[in-house]
Amino acid sequence: MNVSTSLRVRLPAFVFVLEVVMIALYAVFVTYDDNANAKMQNNETNPMDNSLYRDYPYFADVQVMIFVGFGCLLAFFRFYGFSGMVFNFLTATFSIQWAILMQGFFQFYYNGKIHLGVINLLNAEFACAVVLISFGAVIGKTGPVQLLVMALLEVPIFAVTEWAVLKYIRINDAGGSILIHLFAAYFGLGATFVLYRPSLNKGHAKEITSYHSDILSVMGTLFLWVFWPSFNSALTLKGDDQHRAVLHTFIGLSSSTITAFALSAVFNKRGKLTMADIQNVTLAGGVTVGASVDMMISPVGAYVLGIMGCTACFFGYRYLTPFMARRLRIQDQCGIHNLHGLTGLISSTAGICAILLATEETYGPSMYQIFSHRAPPEGDPKLLELQQLIPGLKPGLGRTAKEQALYQVAAIFATIAVSTVGGLLTGFVMNLSFMASPSDEGCFNDEVFFDMPSDFDSAEELKTNMSSDEKLEMSSTNSKV
């Protein structure tokens, strides 16, 4: 093992500093919100009205996606299973802690404290998902210190972008297609561009999967698939909006799944299924319906979006990822640009179309709840009429459908620009010599950072026992990954 990858000083020292900073910040700025504060309880308080019972099921579902779904999915390399799952565990845990503070900064600015409740944890999990998606672009060629640094820098950049887009541009993005998927994809591409390793384009002995690693990875896919409706619907308005979000997500995932099986078989030279397609392409529909998930796009619209997202994702893996590695110096190890970038663009475009087509005839007065920025401003007589029909309706900005669509376009370009620049800058920091980065030979290898059990097979032993046909298959697998 290269001495420069030793974690004995780097990781403990870095974690110690982070924990000291975290303790100080939590002590000064973080307190309970009203639903967790004992002083707010009295004999008129009904414990069952606590927001815990509304928000915790979604928090638990997204937590399964973060720690089990992503963890298993990232364990697809044969010699990198420990790293894929454990680095995901480490990065996710820190990202959530850090996101509570970074997303709460603006709450602190207005209220003097960060009021912590389950809803804050849920929002922090979404920020964590951004980091883990970006992690997919650099998996195999980074160490734990580098990943913690990536989380340390990406979370505040994401928090500021999220705040600015929602406060000033003001968009509809219930499923996070713009603020989560597009941001994460282009941040990851920016980082991996700086971390480019020319030798990896020629293939790597350990950049392969195995029977058991593929099974573990598809288990991660199944966890993500099952809980994705919670991810897309968690922050939508309660009631019919949330109901539609669950329905649309399931339909989009279902159509993308069966389409993925069909495409995998027809484009395989031997007419067989490819596990990489099942692990990744099947999830495309969950992203593609995200921007319009709570809108009246109709079940057939969700079905078509699932097919479109799956198709774009499939051909992206097949043609675009190798092209980007060869021509653009972008080694996207997990193909996050296909599953989150391309599908995020399709989803954002579909959301814009849904906004342009939205009318009171289709939505009724609730149109001004779903598209809150189109609601009449304060003082408009129409606002009073709508508030008679929908008590509690808040004043909006009085935007037209075309104006809102243009703001959506502005948010897309702004998010991509900020995330790309942020990824490039983060990549430069991650590439510093003292970050315990593995050598080219040490990439995709758990032995660099872990004490391995005695039954761990080295790549050299594997190749010695392989037939010529198996070596050819390994070379083919490398080119696909």
TrEMBL record:
It comes from Sparus aurata (Gilthead sea bream). Functions as an ammonia transporter. May play a role in the elimination of ammonia in the gill. One of its GO terms (biological process) is ammonium homeostasis. Residues 460-473 have a biased composition (Basic and acidic residues). Residues 22-433 form the Ammonium transporter AmtB-like domain. It is found in: Cell membrane. The gene is rh50. Coiled coil: none annotated. Keywords: Ammonia transport, Cell membrane, Glycoprotein, Membrane, Transmembrane, Transmembrane helix, Transport. Residues 460-481 are annotated as: Disordered. GO terms for cellular component: plasma membrane. This is Ammonium transporter Rh type B-like. Belongs to the ammonium transporter (TC 2.A.49) family. Rh subfamily. The chain crosses the membrane at residues 12-32, 56-77, 89-110, 116-140, 147-166, 178-196, 208-228, 248-268, 280-297, 303-320, 341-359, 405-429. It is a multi-pass membrane protein. The lineage of its organism: Eukaryota, Metazoa, Chordata, Craniata, Vertebrata. One of its GO terms (molecular function) is ammonium channel activity. InterPro entries: Ammonium/urea_transptr (IPR029020), NH4_transpt_AmtB-like_dom (IPR024041), RhesusRHD (IPR002229). Its main location: membrane.
